[in-house]
Design a protein that fits this description.
heterodimer, A: 294 residues, six-stranded mixed sheet, 15 helices, B: five-stranded mixed sheet, 25 helices, binds adenosine-5'-triphosphate, binds magnesium ion
């Protein structure tokens, strides 16, 4: 769906992005993870051509983006900005309507879609007439998301969509985000520097450092098969928690009669409901240790 | 020149003129403003895109704004002539800077995140500009427009200097005629106009623009421009055109007298004497009001028309001295009288030409004159020891001719007496000089009989009428009145008569066979 090949971008003789290549399958969610300044935003902006790469190529749905008109290209790609990037002189409704207007949608089609999305994103209808500066941070982020989804683009680029929020709000929004039907079929490239977020939302994670990709893979691969010392040390702070959250009971008791999609962490957290089919705590921990040793 | 009526009476009397001046003023301000917006906003947009040109463009606009308005108008006259054209152009130049600067500041102040979002949503660069950047910087741009407007309303008063009309006609006429009501009749509407326009624009500034639609923005601009042109005086055309100073326009021994005595009825514009002579030389004007000894007469080959019906009173130059000074400095009168009859109009014009046009110093011109006329004597040596000789203090008004005369008297006194001399030149106009004389800050200064009569004594109309053509009667009237009222004495006339005169280009006057003002009147009648 999205294919990126050998992207290079220099700023003042320093490589902000160096030889970055990856592919994102249809409906897959790839997370770009890395410390501040490692080149995540730069990579993202080269995909919708807000930046032109010094070298390298990008294909979306098989079409080389460099052959397309940049503004037309962008109208077909949902874009959520790092700092919500809402237009301060437009109301919420007008902000959301920007892209469909560029595509000459009819007024009533725009209105219908606006209310549909406000509802899906749990934004009160009264907000439609307000200006962005009168919304809470969480509401602004949601409006930003709604704006990117308006014309139902198959591809979404999201630059730290929850970056400006406090930890609690973030968790809630993340939860909603995962459950949002609109997003399930979309091909998403999401940038974050929050490891938890990456693990929760990414089908695969692309870990970057100093403009270069260190490793691309599932959470499991990054945790248990690190490609180099950087990857290994990157997760050290919260390794145990991450491992507990990543490893599923089904991974530990292969062929056993354990519920699917329940992580070790979930089991530990919800110990009280001793559901049938969940092994004893000591069994789980032993199995976990064995799993790690493999 | 009577100031018997109050301000409101004046306004009532002159309401027609006031209205037309105000409309012209609005017209000049609006047209220049609209032109400035048309140029400055795109320029501001351009430099916000090409920051390396920003310094240069803002620098040039800044320099333009520091050019003194009068100088700028003077520069423009040879190119654009006189009238509304150079005035609008000058106002346009002044309005550029605030608008360019604010457009630039406004645009670079738009959050890059928002611009990024706009591009990211798929707007092309024009859409980003008109839907996002311009609406978001609108209030900053409008602030610049407001500044420019207020500046322009002020500077547009100077349009009166170059025959473009406006409220400056009253202001400068009032200043020249020392008529407060007239000054206020120009100044108050100008101030109100500035406040009003600023208020309207402040309302406009508050609009929360969603987008700028070019044709919608252009429409009011076009309407405004067209209607403003309508406010300007209709194009001057046709035959001989006269340019008179605001002062001349308002004086009985000026344009008013020309109309009543000579029945001269020609197209006239108001213009400052700073540019009037040049405008006559460059054929923008055919007849101007000037002073008969002005150096520019010679510089621009103009001639004066004979005042055959004796409208202009005699303005004989002579030292005006306090009687107590004559006692204090025995022999001084005889020394000063040495100059009597020595300087003709041609000679004075020549000296003024050297100072005003050739930029020679008054000292040098005075010395050259004294030497050439065998009046020069070496200054007497200062007596050593004993009591220091008393000092004679010579005053002068603030123009070249008076500086020259003061220097001539200085050389004369130093060469012929033991007194010391101090010159206090540049004492502004008649009133300042005359007050200084009365308050014993100076001992004498060169004055003109006509000024003494009309500005100092201000006799009633009848007396003026009687004295106008009768020079000996006027002389004895002046002598008597100044002696009785002020204890002042007019010494013997220096010789020349620095009076108002109508002037024309030499070759045009010859071509049309015009020698006198009556000739001019007849020429216009045909
Ligand atoms: N327009 C630019 N001009 C110069 N340097 C830039 C520009 N944009 C980014 N950089 C530099 O390139 C590097 C990568 O920046 P980038 O914004 O891609 O980082 P990031 O991974 O998104 O960081 P963050 O998590 O803080 O958003 C940084 O060192 C940054 O300073
Ligand atoms: Mg970033």
């Amino acid at each position: 769906m999205i294919k990126v090949e050998n992207l290079v971008k220099y700023f003042n003789d320093e490589a902000a992005v160096n030889q970055v290549s990856f592919e994102i399958a249809e409906a897959e969610n790839l997370v770009l993870l890395g410390t501040s300044g490692c080149g995540k935003t730069t990579t993202l902006r080269m995909i919708n051509r807000l930046l032109e790469p010094d070298s390298g190529r990008v294909w979306i749905q098989g079409v080389d983006t460099s052959l397309q008109d940049p503004s037309k290209l962008r109208r077909g790609i949902g874009y959520v900005l790092q700092h919500h990037g809402l237009f301060p002189h437009f109301t919420v409704a007008e902000n959301i309507a920007v892209v469909p207007k560029l595509l000459h949608w009819k007024e009533d089609a725009i209105r219908a879609r606006t209310f549909e999305l406000l509802e899906k994103l749990q934004l009160p209808v009264q907000l439609a007439g307000l200006y962005p500066q009168n919304l809470s941070g969480g509401q602004q982020q949601r409006v930003g998301l709604a704006r990117s989804l308006m014309v139902n683009p198959p591809v979404l680029l999201m630059d730290e969509p929850f970056g400006a929020l406090d930890a609690l709000t973030r968790r809630d929004i993340r939860l909603e985000f995962r459950q949002l039907e609109e997003l399930k079929s979309k091909t998403i490239l999401m940038v974050t520097h929050d490891v938890q977020e990456a693990f929760e939302l990414g089908d695969r994670i692309c870990l970057m450092d100093k403009g270069e990709i260190q490793q691309i893979g599932t959470a499991m691969e990054l945790l248990f098969k690190p490609a180099n010392a950087f990857v290994r040390s990157f997760f050290n702070d919260q390794r145990t928690q991450l491992e507990f959250k990543t490893v599923m009971l089904t991974d530990l008791f292969i062929g056993g009669s354990v519920p699917a999609k329940v992580s070790v962490w979930d089991t530990l957290e919800n110990r009280s409901d001793t559901d049938a089919g969940i092994p004893a705590l000591s069994d789980i921990l032993t199995a976990f240790e064995n799993f790690k040793r493999k | 020149m009577e100031q018997d009526s109050g301000f409101f009476a004046f306004i009532q009397q002159q309401s027609g003129k006031l209205l037309s001046q105000t409309l012209t003023h609005v017209g000049l301000t609006m047209i220049s403003l609209v032109l400035a917006i048309i140029i400055a906003v795109p320029l501001g947009i351009w430099i916000s895109r090409k920051p390396k040109f920003a310094g240069g463009v803002l620098g040039v606009a800044g320099v333009l704004q520091t050019i003194p308005s009068i100088a700028l108008l003077g520069i423009l006259i040879p190119v654009l002539g006189i009238g509304p054209k150079p005035a609008i152009f000058a106002l346009f130049l002044y309005a550029l800077l605030p608008i360019v600067r604010n457009t630039y500041t406004g645009l670079i102040g738009v959050s890059p995140v928002v611009v990024d979002a706009a591009k990211g949503m798929g707007m092309n660069s024009l859409q980003v500009l008109f839907k996002v950047e311009l609406p978001l910087s609108f209030s900053v741009i409008m602030a610049g427009v407001r500044t420019a407007t207020v500046i322009n309303v002020g500077v547009a008063t100077l349009a009166a200097y170059i025959a473009a009309g406006g409220l400056g006609e009253f202001i400068f006429g009032g200043i020249a005629l020392n008529n407060t009501n007239m000054i206020l009749a120009g100044a108050i509407p100008a101030a109100l106009l500035a406040v009003l326009l600023d208020f309207i624009l402040s309302r406009v500034q508050r609009f929360r623009l969603k987008k700028v639609v070019l044709w919608k923005a252009a429409l009011p601009v076009i309407i405004l421009t067209l209607s403003s042109f309508y406010l300007l005086p209709t194009k001057l055309g046709g035959r001989l055109l006269a340019g008179f100073t605001p002062e001349f326009m308002g004086r009985e021994d000026g344009y008013i007298g020309l109309k009543s005595l000579y029945h001269l009825d020609m197209e006239t514009v108001v213009i400052s004497d700073a540019v009037m002579y040049k405008a006559a030389r460059d054929k923008h004007l055919d007849v101007i009001s000037g002073y008969s000894t002005d150096g520019r007469l010679k510089a621009y080959s103009l001639i004066t028309l004979e005042d055959d019906l004796k409208l202009f009173p005699a303005y004989q130059a002579a030292p005006l001295i306090r009687e107590d000074v004559l006692m204090k400095f025995p022999g001084l009168e005889a020394v000063l009288d040495q100059l009597s009859g020595k300087i003709s109009e041609a000679v004075m014009t020549g000296m003024n030409y050297k100072v005003d046009q050739l930029k020679q110093s008054p000292e040098k011109v005075a010395l050259d004159f004294m030497v050439a006329n065998n009046l020069y004597k070496k200054p007497r040596p200062v007596k050593v020891g004993g009591v220091a000789a008393p000092t004679v203090r010579i005053g002068s008004k603030i123009f070249g001719e008076q500086y020259i005369l003061a220097q001539i008297y200085r050389i004369l006194i130093l060469g012929n007496t033991d007194f010391q001399v101090e010159t206090k030149t540049g004492l502004g106009g008649t009133k300042i000089c005359f007050d200084a004389l009365q308050n014993k800050q100076i001992d004498f200064y060169p004055e003109y009989t006509g000024t003494g009569l009309l500005v100092v004594l201000q006799p009633d109309r009848q007396t003026r009428e009687k004295l106008r053509t009768d020079i000996p009667a006027m002389k004895s009237y002046l002598d008597r009145e100044f002696h009785e009222k002020y204890g002042l004495k007019w010494l013997k006339p220096i010789g020349f008569n620095n009076t108002y005169a109508l002037m024309m280009r030499k070759e045009q006057a010859a071509e049309l066979g015009i020698k006198t003002i009556t000739d001019l009147t007849n020429q216009i009648k045909n």
